[in-house]
Design a protein that fits this description.
The chain is of the alpha/beta class. Helices cover about 45% and strands about 15% of the residues. It is built from 14 helices and 8 strands. The chain has an 8-stranded parallel beta barrel, surrounded by 5 helices. Helix 7 runs parallel beside helix 8, helix 10 packs parallel to helix 13 and helix 13 packs across helix 14.
Amino acid sequence: MKQLISYYRMPGDREEEISRLIHAEGLDGVENLIYGSQAGSPPFLQITVGTHLRYWPYWMDFYEGNKDRLFEIFTNQDNIRQMYGAEDREGWIQVIRANICAALAEKPRYLVWHVQESTPEEAFSWRFRHTDEEVLAATAELYQSFRDLIPDGVFILFENIFWPGLYRLEPEKVEYFFTRLDDPAHTGLMFDSGHFMITNPDLTSEKEAALYIRESMKQLGEMRSLVKGIHLSCSLSGAYIRQFRRGMPVPLTNQVMMRHICSLDHHDPFQTRAAREIVEAIEPDYVTHELFGNTFAEAVEKARKQVLLVTGARETQVYHSV
């Protein structure tokens, strides 16, 4: 099992310096966030183990050509083009393919793709037009337009989000999705612990979260082997979920949306051995410590403590029970 950290390359970053920083804290490499269509120059081949692809929270109306809905949200064609990088579905698929090619230039062992659908309004109303099955069917269909790019030996791992898609990873929906993907040699799941915790606002402790996740993995049965990786973080955001106003803020700015998302998805490090219990329940190939920090060095320090919890090593400040 490799322990990684989520990483976004900044101008001036040098691979040897990032390598020295992460390896000093017990990390094996990075999951590199690749959101554009140009490969890094040079690519970070020595430390990149996985790459996280660009994602669009709201995409099904564009994919299905529902222009009326798109104009309700974006008001004009320029804003739509800015969002998707294209005028239409076929152009957008080319944007996706270019992003995948840029990610593959880093020679990763896996790619990560978000499975989700939520308009800005739905993100606040919590009333969604699309079902999990509709999002899964459309995602599986979209996958067929770029599956030819995935080389042998590389997996594309589909990540659960707290919106329609792989919402609670119910076994029948996971089976439904992977049957339609029809590519077992190249597809699997990236389990995001923080996202999954958001689906149960009654959770009040890390211990309860670990039990919730372990039960879900048990219900997956043999399909648990689809989970190749974990995005490990803690989001005990039930209090916020219960009290936030179910309606579209006016005006809805990027700052307001980001504050809302961060209030849901904390990306906090675990503080207890619940981290180890989650990893043991899944037995992944990769654990990516996906944690917020004002700097990358701060995120690495948080990851160091979580690494100790996962491995069972003792550090007085972090190793305690719930």
